[in-house]
Fold each of these.
Amino acid sequence: MTTRVRFAPSPTGYLHIGAARSALFNWLYARQTGGKFLLRIEDTDLQRSTDESTRSIIDGMQWLGLVHDDEIVFQSANADKHRAAANQLIAAGKAYRDFTPKAERNDATVKQGIAERARAHSNEGVDQRGNPFRDLSLAESDQRAAAGEAFAVRLKIPRAGKTHFTDLVYGPQERDYSEIEDLVLLRSDGHPLYNLSVVIDDIEMAITHVIRGQDHLTNTHKQVLLYEALGAPIPQFAHLPLILAPNKGKLSKRKHGEVVSLTTYRDRGFVPAAFRNFLALLGWAPAEGKEILSVDELMQQFSLEHIHRSPAVFNFQENDPRHWTDEKALWMNAEYIRTMPVADLLPLVKAELRAAKLWREEYDDDGREWLAKTLDLIRQRFFTLKDFSEQGRAYFSDDFDFEETAVSKNLRKDPRLKELLPALAAELEKVTDFNAATAEAALRKFAEQADVKAGLLINGSRTMLTGQAVGPSMFEVFEILGRQRSVERLRSGVPWFDALNALGDV
Ligand code: GLU
C-alpha cells in the first residue's frame, strides 16, 4: 500500500516551528517510503483563518524545500461532506441531535443537571451520558428537526468500553469511554467541528499515517471512535513530542514571539538546508549519532520508531540578542555556511548582499572568481548569512563601521600606529606582484626595520581594513582586498588618528 501522509495546518497565524517540524517529518516519511505528501489547509475557523497565513505557510514550506504532492485541499470546501457524514451517523443511530436550547446549553444549572444525571447513571453502572436527547427515537428526532427546532449533532459514545490504538511513537494507548464526552460533530448552525472534519478528510484523502503533534493525542481517541462509527479503516498514528521553551514551559507564539516563527529564520539569514537539518533533530535522532545530515541521509535514516517520547527543548536565552535562538540551530547554521560548496552558498549570499544593497553586477561576471574566493575566506567565523553583509561589509563596500572594541584594542592603544600604518602602506605600494605571501614578507620586513612586533601591524591593519578585531588570516585579507584598497585604508587612518588626538582620546 502506498503511504499517504498529510500536513494539515490551520491558517491562523504564522508557521510555528513545531508545525514546520510536523511538515518535515511527514515529508521525510513520504519521500522515504515513496509515498505521497499532501497539504490540507484547515481553514474552517472562518474568523481566524487568513489568506496571508496560508501564504506564509506555503512560503515557509517552500523555503524548507518541502514540496507537497497533488492539489492543496482546503478543508472549508468539504463542509457539505462533513455534514453528510454527520447525518449518516444520525441515521445509523451512532450520533444524535441535541435539541438543548441555546440559552440553556451554557446555563450552569442545566450543565450541572446533566452532570448529576450522569453521575446517578454511572452509579447504577448503566449510562454515563446525562444528555436527555441521547436516546430520543430517530422518528421523534427527525420530526423535531423537520419542524425547524435547532440542534447540534453529537457522537454517541458507547456506554462501556475503551478506545485502543497503538501510537507508533508513544505505544499502546487506551481511554475509558467514560472519560470521553459525546463530542459535538456539528454546531447548531450546521458548522462541522474539528474532529469530524479531520476524520472525514483523512478518509477521503486515503491517509495511511497521521503524523502530528503530541497535543493532538487526546483528540485521537475521539477520532478513533469516529472511524469506528463510520466503519472506516483507522490509519496509523505517530505523535511527535512537544517542543518546549528553555524553562520547560510551552513554546508559544504569544509569549516567545518571532523566535517561534519559521520565517524569522529565513529573514535572519539561515541556510534552509541547515534549518531543515536542525528541525529534523528536534525530537528525533539518527542511529549513528552524526548530526549534520544531507537531505538524502535524512530521507534514508529517518524513522518514526526512533522519534523520542520526551519533549524537545528549544534552547535560547530570552533577552540575549547573541543567543536569540537555539544554540544548536546557530551552530548548525555556522557549520553549513563553513562547509557547504561555495557554489551553493553563492546564491544565498547574493540574495543577502542584494537586500543590503551591496551586490554589484560584476560579481555575476568578471568578479565572480573574486567573490567565490572572498566568501570562502570570510565564511569561517560566520553564523548567519546576515554576517556577510554586516561583519563582512568591508569586503563589499568602503563604507563600513569600526567596532569600538577593535579600535580601542588594535588602534588606540599604541600612538605609533598613526605613523606606522601609512608607512606600511608605502612599503606595500612597492611590492611587485601583490598577494598574501608578498604582503606578508613586506609587512614582516617593515616590522623588523621599525623595530616593532609584526602582531602590532597585523592587528592594526585588520582593524583599519575591516573595522573588526578578528577575522581571517590578515595576509589573505590583503590579497582579497587588493593593493589599492589596502593602501587607501591604511592611510585613511591619518585624519582619523588626528581626530582622536584632538579629542585627547589616544
Ligand atoms: N489543523 C490542526 C492543527 O493545526 C492539525 C490537525 C491534524 O494534524 O490532524 O493543529
Note: The longest strand covers residues 36-41.
Amino acid sequence: MTRTTIHVDGTWRGALSGETRDVLDPADGQPFAVVAEGGTADADAAVASARAAFDSGVWRGAAVSERSALLRRVADLLVRDREELALLESRDAGKTVEEGRIDVDCVADTFRYFADLALTEGAGRVVDAGSDTVHSVVVHEPVGVCALITPWNYPLLQASWKIAPALAAGNTFVVKPSEITPLSTVALIALLTEAGLPAGVAGVVTGPGHTVGARLCEHPDVDLVSFTGGLTSGVKVAQAAAPGVKKVALELGGKNPNVVFADFCDTPAGFDTAVDQALNAAFIHSGQVCSAGSRLIIEESVRERFVAELSRRAGRIRLGRGTEKDVECGPLVSLAQLERTEEYVASALGEGAILRSGGARPEPSGTRPAGGWFYEPTVLDRCHRRMRVVREEVFGPVLTVETFRTEDEAVTLANDTEFGLAGAVWTADAARGRRVAGRLRHGTVWINDFHPYLPQAEWGGFGKSGIGRELGPSGLAEYREAKHIYQNLAPRPVRWFSG
Ligand code: NAD
C-alpha cells in the first residue's frame, strides 16, 4: 500500500503535511504498510469536495436505478477481489483469512441489499389528505454530506454498513477509517471509483480520531455523522456534532449476555452445541467483536460440567498468524488492546474470579511470532455483576461466568448492563425462548444461536450501545430526510383576516 491513501476530488494523494504512519501487523508487531497521516486540513479539503459534489447534484440527481446499478457493480468487484481483500483484512486486523473472506461476502451482500432497497423504497408515499383537491406526498431525500467514522475490528464491514446506504440514498461522504486498520477501506474507495462513482462523491482521509475524526464531526458543512466505535469516543462525537445540530448515529460497545438454560444441555446434541457456540460467541476474532458473547450466564445446575468442557476446549484453540493454515484465532489488534485485556483479567482475579483457562500470553511457536500480540482464550468462573470485567467491555478473549437459578434471575442478570447491543438465550422450551427474548433489553436477541445477522434486519443497540440503527430499512432511513409535499389543487382565499 502506498502513502497516497487520501482520496479527495477523485484524486489519490498523501497528507498535506507530508506525514505518514506505519501500519503494523498484529501477528509480529512489525510495519508492513505505510499510509498518509491526514490532519484537519485534509479533512477540510475532503468535506469541501463532498459538499461541492452534493450541491452539484451529480449523485443525488442521478436516477435511483443508476445508483442501484453502481452498488451492484461494487458488489461484483468485491467478489472479484475477495481473496486479495480477505488477505489485506487479515494482515491489518489480525483475523484469520477465512474470517476475512466471510467479511467480504457480507460486505458484497450489504451492497446488493441496499441496491435493491433503494429501488423499492425510492418511490414517494401518497398520503390521504382527506380532500379531493389536495395531492399530498411524502418523498425522501439524501441528508447531504456524511462523515463516516469506523473502528478497527471489522474495518471493511463497518464501512460498508455506512457507505452502501449513504450512496443508495444519494448522499456524498467522507470516511475516516481507524488509524490502526485503514487499508481495506482505502481499497473499497478504489473499487467505488472503478465502478464509476463520480469524483467528489466518496472521499477518504486516513488519520487519527482526535484530529481528522473530531474535525469531521464539528465541520459546519457536514450534515450527518455516523460513528462506530467505543463509548468514550462516541460521547465526544455526539458533543462535537451537537452545536451544528447534525444528524448523529452511534454504534457503540456491548457487554453481551449468553444465557444458557439447563434444559437445552439435556437434549441429545444440546450440551455440545451450547458449549461450541459459547466458545464461538466469546472467542471469534479474539473477542474483539462488539456483539461478543462475553458474559456466559448459565443455570447453576449445569455450570460445573459446562464450564469444565468450555475451558478444556478454549485451551485447545489454535492461536497464530491469521494467514497461516490451521490457525483458528489471530492476535489482538494492538499492544494497547493486549495490555488492556491483561489488566482486566488481573482486576477480575483480584476481585475473586477463578481462572479456568488461559490468562496469559502464549509462548511463541511456528505460527506465532515472538512480537505478536497474542493472548490465550480466557475463562473466568465465579464472576458477579459488581466486577469491572463483567460490567465493562474488555474487547479481548475473556469470558466471564455467572449463574442463575430462575428465569427471572437470568433475565435480571442479562439486562443488568448499561449496554444493550445483543444477547442470546439457549433453551429447549420454545415458549420460554420467545418469552425471554421479549424481556431482553438488547437490539438483537438470538434464540439457540449466536452472532448471525442479516443485512435486511436492523442492527444497533439499546442504552449506551448507541443511537439509531444500521442495516434494514432503518439503515437506509438514517441517510434520508423525509419531505412532505402538500399540493392544493384548488387554491382560494382562507379569509381568516377580515381586512
Ligand atoms: P474508538 O472509539 O477508539 O475509535 C473508533 C473510530 O473513532 C476510529 O476511527 C477513531 O480514530 C475515531 N475517533 C476516536 N476519537 C474520536 C473523536 N474524538 N472524534 C471523532 N472520531 C474519533 O473505537 P475502536 O477501539 O476503534 O473500536 C472498538 C469499539 O468499537 C468497541 O467499543 C466496539 O464495541 C465498538 N464497535 C461497535 C460496533 C457496533 O456495531 N455497535 C461494531 C464494531 C465496533
Note: The chain has 16 helices and 20 strands.
Amino acid sequence: MSINSDLNVVFVLGGPGVGKGTQCSKLVKDFKFKHLSAGDLLRAEQVAEGSQFRDIIKQHIKDGTIVPQEITIALLRQAIVNNQHEYKNFLIDGFPRKLDQAITFEETVMKAKLTLFFDCTKEVMLNRLMERSKTSGREDDNIESIEKRFDTFVNTSMPVIEYLDTERHIVKKIDCTKSVEEIYTNVKKALEGII
Ligand code: C5P
Ligand code: MG
C-alpha cells in the first residue's frame, strides 16, 4: 500500500539512554502523534513467530551494531501504512542510525519534516542506562553492549545527524543534560508548526 504524502515524519535521534523514548511518550500523551521506535519494532520482530530475521536481529542488538536497512525500513513502512489512516504525525525514534537508512527511507518511504537531535554527554547517558538496566530487562543494557552501542553511535550514527543537518537542513538540537521537564519544553518549541 502507498504512503500518504501529507504525513509529517519527525526523526528522533541521539545516543543510547539520552531519553528519546521518554520524550516521545510525553508527546504522545499531549498530542496526536504515533510513536514508532525502530528498536521496539526490531525487538518485536526478534520474537515474532516464524520470522526469518530473529537470529540476525538478536545478534546485532547484542553487538550494538545496525541491523540491515531492508529489515528496519520494511518494519517502519508497514507500521506507517497501518497507522496512516488514524495519524498524520509520526515520531520515528532511533532511526535512521546509518547513512544508507536515511537515504533509502527518504527515497522510498517519505521525506522527514524535522529531526530532533537529543544532544548529551556520554557520562549522563551512561548513568541513565545503568539506572534503566535495573528494570528494563533489555539484553543490551549491560556494560559490554553499552560500550559497543556508544561506538556505533559516534562512528555510524553521528554522520547521519551531520548529513541531515548540512544537506537536508532539518535538524533541531536539544540539550539533554537538563531535567525531563526542561527538555520537554524545548522539544515542544522545536515542534512548533507541527503541533
Ligand atoms: O533504539 P534502541 O536503543 O532501542 O535500539 C536497540 C538496538 O536496535 C540498536 O543497538 C541496534 O542494534 C538496533 N537498531 C538498528 N537500527 C535502528 C535502530 C535500532 O539496528 N535504526
Ligand atoms: Mg528507545
Note: The chain has one domain: 8-190.
